[in-house]
Amino acid sequence: MADAVLFEFLHTEMVAELWAQDPDPDPGPGVSAGPGGGGGGGWGGQKMSLSVLEGMGFRVGQAMAERLPRETLAFREELDVLKFLCKDLWVAVFQKQMDSLRTNHQGTYVLQDNSFPLLIRMSSGLQYLEEAPKFLAFTCGILRGALSTLGIKSLVTASVAALPACKFQVVIQRC
């Protein structure tokens, strides 16, 4: 339990620190961070902060996957890897399993968490919906990093329609 609280506080501080580096309140043209537009930094600063968070998550995901037992790394199919992420990896990071995994069997997977731990504290009001993307970038990186270590190149994005639920879309990059 203490690990989860420490992780949540650390994650919150990482997000706050990155957004504090670019205090420009003008979201700039083309920003869409949820209903009603952006906020929380200029266009360039916001994209840079999301990229930094995603990069940090990528390195953490790689490190987590590298520490897996060798028999775990012997997945036969992509779907098995995604199931592993939804169960074992998610439990290791968030002390719960992902709520659902869907696929179109053409390289696109949707992972849904109906009570995403990093969004629970802000789920008391719709005004926080536009702030949600910056709390998902690190986790997108964790997923992409773990997949990379397991030999799967991917693009991972996240979306939030209603707090604290979120969806992570994983698109496998074919060579």
Q: Assess the beta-strand content as a share of residues.
A: 5-15%
Number of helices: 4
| Shape label | globular
**Computed structural class:** alpha+beta
User: Mean of residue pLDDT?
Assistant: 81
* Helix content range: 40-55%
According to DSSP, the number of beta strands is 4
Q: Any low-confidence stretches, pLDDT <50, length ≥5? A: 25-43
Order of helices and strands: HHHEEHEE
CATH architecture level-2 label: 2-Layer Sandwich
Strand line-up in the sheet with most strands: 1-2-4-3
Q: In this structure, how is the largest beta sheet organized? A: 4 strands, antiparallel
Distance between the termini: 41 Å
Tally of separate domains: 1
CATH class bucket: Alpha Beta
- Rounded to an integer in angstroms, the radius of gyration calculated over CA atoms is 16 Å
CATH topology: Muramoyl-pentapeptide Carboxypeptidase, domain 2
CATH superfamily placement: Trafficking protein particle complex subunit 3
